[in-house]
Write the structure tokens for this entry.
Amino acid sequence: MDRNNFKTDIDLSYLREVVSGNTEFMIEMIDIFLDQTPGFVDDLTKAIEEKDWPKVALVAHKLKPTFSFMGIASANELMEDIERDARDQTNLDEVVNRFHLMQDVLQTIFDNLQQKKQELLKEG
Amino acid sequence: MHSVYFSLGSNLGNRMLNLKKAVNLLGKGIIQTPIYSSVYETKAWGNTQQPDFLNMVVKGVTKLTPLQLLNHCQEIEKTLGRKRIEHWGSRIIDIDILFYEDQVINIENLKIPHPYLHKRKFVLAPLKEIAAEFLHPILKKTIKTLYSTCEDDLNVCIFDTNQQI
């Protein structure tokens, strides 16, 4: 996966189903995501710099479900690959490349989520 | 190994036998160390003209991926002769994956946690028996709490205690 085929689209349909269309709750989930993700990314940056691969796997594991229920399939896939290879300590160059890719796309994901949030606020 | 929870339901033919056969097939190479809830009887969901359902939850550990599990569940449904007569309709056996570890899987054919599990008492009642403290990875509430706040008013009760699995 590279920057060109990384999809930063957000698909909230699963989350909407789980919370029975409760837009207030969905907005809360988005806010938690926007609030917590930068901290996790800082942890991941530090772990990558320190080549602390078990920590890299752990943080990627924590990031994975939130990307998943926000319907950001590419980011979820990326976290899965980072987690697996960091845990097995294989393809470590790729782990670092994937992490850089995530850094590249994260702002777009945040912007798209902010937009979704605005749409939900209008619905609510 | 990964821990996994399934919901099983049947409301056609010999319902208890259908559940037993499905549990038996799950135990053959799909999951290990299974734990079974009691079997519950429930009015059919979404269509109250249907025969009553028997429902249960099974926990196990597996080496399989979620998609492999989905394929196996569909194979079991096919083997036992699932008949999808109508949406929300009668079926010989219905198997859903409720949880796979604490993972959230959101792909086209597979959503885990099952998106409606917390709205259905026939899932939550048996699940509470074997996983009361399990935390729903999106809603961040335990099964016990989800059960006590569930607004589903269908009558769910333990089936004949002499006929349990």
